[in-house]
Amino acid sequence: MALHFQDDPLLWAGWLYAWDGMTQGDIAKVMGVSRATVNGYLAEARSRGIVTLTMDAARLSELSIAQALKRHFGLEGCVVIPPGDGERPLTERLGIAGAKVLQQLIRPGDRVGVSWGRTVMAVARTMPPLRVPDVEVVQVTGGLTATFDFSPELCISRLAQALGARSINITAPLMVSSPAVRDVLMAEAMLADQMRLARGADRLLFGIGSTREGSLAFESHLITPQDLEAAHATHATAVLAGRLIDDRGRPIAGPLEGRTIGLTLEELSRIRSRIAVAGGSDKVQAILSTLRGRYATVLVTDAVTGAGILQAEGVPEAPGGLRAVKKANSQGGTAVKTKKLINDPANIIEEMLEGIVKAHPNHIRVAPGHPRAVVAVDGPREGKVGIVVGGGSGHEPTFLGFVGKGLADACAVGNVFASPPPDPIVECTKAVDGGAGVLYLFGNYAGDVMNFEMAAELAALEDHEVRIVTTTDDIASAPLAEKEKRRGVAGNFFVFKMAGAAADKMLSLDEVERVARKANAATFTVGVALSPCSLPQTRRPNFEIGEDEMEVGMGIHGEPGIKREPLKPADAVVDEIMERIFAELPKETKSVAVLVNSLGSTPPMELYVVNRRVHQRLERKGIAVHATWVGGYCTSLEMAGMSVTVTALDEELTELLDRPCDCAMFRAG
After folding, report:
1. What is the mean pLDDT of the chain?
2. What is the DSSP pairing of strand 166-168 with strand 136-139?
3. What is the pLDDT of residues 298-307, one digit of tens each?
4. Do the Cβ atoms of 174 and 143 come closer than 8 Å?
5. How far apart are the first and last CA of the chain?
6. Predicted pLDDT at 56
7. Any transmembrane segments, and where (predicted)?
8. pLDDT digits (tens, 9 = 90+) for 65-87
């Protein structure tokens, strides 16, 4: 059975029927059962509500994340558990899922190598009694002197008890005082024999440790902050069986490596079946590093973490987080694929970039050897603060359309709706640093924050001074008291423009950063979605909405809004948006800039109707409109809908807004 369906044949049959469009005969062949059995599975799935005209969206999201992780990282299997219900902690739920996976994989005569940690112990504790003949459980690391109840010795003892298996310990510490002591111990015949047995493991069960301060690696005294401050460990992001790896999954050689007793990463990688069980938002970077290094063949994680990994890696989550069950009168049903003028979806970003550069050769170029790093032809110059923007594709002209003189100097390009990885961000930094420092500007999304922060750390190692400002203009995405959690949407346009103008004036890095933060604080956006978009990889809508419905506050990736209600006339929609903006616009505001933005397929005719009402509402408040832009400036592929952005202006921001710029897809002055 496919691992991402855990032990539920109803889900598997339902997926193949409703999502892959297979006949019952085809499903029977794939599942290795009779057609009559498939018929029974589907009937029961319908009665349980798992399958209607489509798959149940809540289950579909977990399965789609698992499939995307499996496909992108070449995993043999992946299990993604749903978000928690608050009743059981994540570690326990991961343990239950990990135990089910191990039950499916273990065979008579297997030798199971085991690491240690909270999640590994959770697997052992939740493993039901399972008597498999001739199974052995062996430590793959030395032991620990810590008093917690999930040490290597306790983990293998508990798992061996559940499996009725023989346990084999490594009778030496995991970390010793020096390489010389390690060499002496490794020469002992008993330890050498234990290591030989560990190397012969058929399966490996391991957790993934983070190198964040306060993580288990520090709690167990396995590593110290001083260890990570050493030059060899500055890129350490994860701990696997006591070994450090960097953000690309490469082993970190250094003093710690020479003092560690246990299987090396190369030896661990030779074990044919390697089950990693880990989750939690604080583990995204560590798990991503592990997957990049190909240390796991099977991953067990949770939906939130899985989605974060995909976003950080720049992989679109297919099919994109459907949130509702198909209704007869809804738009965006999954049964019909959308039409797109594309070739191979895997090449769409590179082909788009090639076309854009050919269309705008006087404005942008691609950094040599780095096709996802787009640089302004005239922007970077000596003594000027460099402006690097970036984010997922599918929002054009945001982000790369705003690269040019007087605005952004470079853009790191991600996959559709996915953050760019650190590498192109670093290349952009190198290309635009004229000696005055670099400012990163991007929307406030978990994957973008993680990858831009990682890039800033890497750039600092090469003596580039970097500052970061995230945009948070989407007032519907979080309450005012939690403004730092808000998303960055169409308001990027004004923040990028003003920060770019400040840099063009040759202001210092401190001043450019101040201007960016000031512009962001003065910018407010609310959007309304009318119909969904579809990713090139799936060509299926990423959400469903009734033909007479609208959703207020929906994000530019299809994130849930604040309410769904019947579609209203344009003026009523604008009134609702403007009331939310007026509630946060500073009371002393006398002048504003306005952006009426199409989310993709809403035409200029409708946008100008909206703009008319926006101006009416502002005029009646006694607020002057200094400048207005109407059109597609921050899109969401072909999504229907629009957003209104209002930026409160003072003399400084007005001057910066009016300063000329010349970009590939935008010009002013």
Report:
1. 87
2. parallel
3. 999 998 899 8
4. yes
5. 62
6. 47
7. none
8. 888 899 889 999 999 988 765 67
**For the chain, what's the residue count?**
669
Q: List all residues 6 or more positions away from 20 whose beta carbon is below 8 Å from its beta carbon.
A: none
> On the CB side of 213, how many CA atoms lie within 13 Å of its CA?
3
**CA dist., res. 371 & res. 352, Å (int):** 11
Q: Which residue, 374, 375, 376, 417, is CA-closest to 395?
A: 417
Residues 56 and 8: beta-carbon distance below 8 Å? no
- pLDDT value at position 436? 97
- 3-state SS assignment for residue 462: coil
Sort strands 545-546 and 330-331 into parallel, antiparallel or unpaired: antiparallel
pLDDT at 138: 95
Phi/psi zone of residue 7: left (φ > 0), alpha (ψ -120 to 50 degrees), beta?
Answer: alpha
Count other C-beta atoms under 10 Å from residue 258's C-beta: 13
pLDDT tens digits, one per residue of 206-216: 999 887 665 56
Q: Using CA atoms, how far apart are residues 69 and 278, in angstroms rounded to an integer?
A: 14
**Stronger pLDDT, 3 or 634, i.e. the higher one:** 634
Type of residue found at 446 = A
Dihedral of alpha carbons 3, 8, 14, 17, sign: positive
| Residue 395 is among the residues annotated as catalytic for this protein | yes
Question: Could you say which of 232, 557, 615, 626 is catalytic?
Answer: 557
Confidence grade of residue 320 (pLDDT, cut at 50, 70, 90): very low
Q: Is 40 exposed, middle or buried (0-12, 13-18, 19+ CB in 10 A)?
A: middle
Q: What is the arithmetic mean of pLDDT over 427-450?
A: 94
Q: Which residue in 170, 118, 119, 166 sits closest to 141, CA to CA?
A: 170
pLDDT at 419 > cutoff 60: yes
Residue 111 has which token pair? Answer: 């030798």
pLDDT of residue 86: 62
Is the Cβ–Cβ distance between 658 and 625 less than 8 Å? Answer: no
Helix (H) or strand (E) holding 182, with range, is: helix 179-186
Residue 170 CA, chain-centre distance (Å), reads: 38
Q: Which residue has the tokens 């999502």?
A: 19
Q: Which of 428-432, 573-577, 663-667 has the lowest mean pLDDT?
A: 663-667
Buried-exposed string 281-306: b where 16+ CB fall within 10 A, e elsewhere: eebbbbbbbbbbbebbbbbbbbbbbb
**DSSP calls for 536-553:** TTT-SBSS-EETTEEEET
Give me the phi and psi of 570, to 5 degrees please: -55, -45
Q: What is the DSSP string of 44-102?
A: HHHHHTSBSSSB-HHHHHHHHHHHHHHHHHT-SEEEEEPPP-SSS-HHHHHHHHHHHHH
Q: Is the pTM of this model over 0.85?
A: no
pLDDT tier, 122 (very low <50, low <70, confident <90, very high otherwise): very high
pLDDT at 57: 45
* Exposure class string for 449-485: b at 16+ Cβ within 10 A, else e: bbbbbbbbebbeeeebbbbbbbbbbbbbbeeeeebee
Residue among 395, 464, 615, 626 flagged as catalytic: 395
The pair of three-digit structure tokens given for residue 36, joined into one six-digit string: 């009559």
Q: Is the pLDDT of residue 542 over 70?
A: yes
Respond yes or no on whether the N-terminal peptide bond of residue 397 is cis (omega within 30° of 0): yes
Q: Which residue has the tokens 């520090």?
A: 218
217 pLDDT more than 70: no
Integer Cα distance of 31 and 330 in angstroms: 32
